[in-house]
């Protein structure tokens, strides 16, 4: 069994990669920082020395990097059972105040990366009529916030991509799930003054992903909204 997780050197992506490795999946992971990525790969191997870990430094905001990553994955794995489009950038701020070019950069990292990688790996899934694609959306995909800005636009777009993909792949027996977590204790929230227990843990998202994956073949979770027990942080 093989899984691909983008943006997996830390946070939710790392938690998902570890969870799938523990469950016996070979994993292909990517992130921009090569040193951090290799440290994560070693942690994954420690959890399950029997599986293969493919760690490829990749800037998911660059189409050529995404395509190169896809080619290396296809060369290493005959089939892809799980694809987790998790890579993304979080920069809050009001639209009128954000720097020029931020929307374009965030669209590339948060949306186009998932689009291009999925297109590269889909033919293999369709050929064997199985596979599960998880798109890491956000509560910001559903609810507008005063400082949502470019980030919220990209997450609304990612949810739209995910919904459309779900419709396209029904007849091919490939599942698509949109996971939309709210505030989660990751690097994106570093410096934010809130008690740790006010946020969810990355492992919560990983466990929910696994629960969705392990349903019967004829069942699919289309969309999931996850929030801290006390709700979003405004």
Automatic annotation (TrEMBL):
<dbReference type="InterPro" id="IPR002347">
    <property type="entry name" value="SDR_fam"/>
</dbReference>
<comment type="similarity">
    <text>Belongs to the short-chain dehydrogenases/reductases (SDR) family.</text>
</comment>
<dbReference type="Pfam" id="PF00106">
    <property type="entry name" value="adh_short"/>
</dbReference>
<keyword id="KW-0560">Oxidoreductase</keyword>
<dbReference type="InterPro" id="IPR020904">
    <property type="entry name" value="Sc_DH/Rdtase_CS"/>
</dbReference>
<dbReference type="GO" id="GO:0016020">
    <property type="term" value="C:membrane"/>
</dbReference>
<dbReference type="GO" id="GO:0016491">
    <property type="term" value="F:oxidoreductase activity"/>
</dbReference>
<dbReference type="InterPro" id="IPR036291">
    <property type="entry name" value="NAD(P)-bd_dom_sf"/>
</dbReference>
<protein>
    <submittedName>
        <fullName>SDR family NAD(P)-dependent oxidoreductase</fullName>
    </submittedName>
</protein>
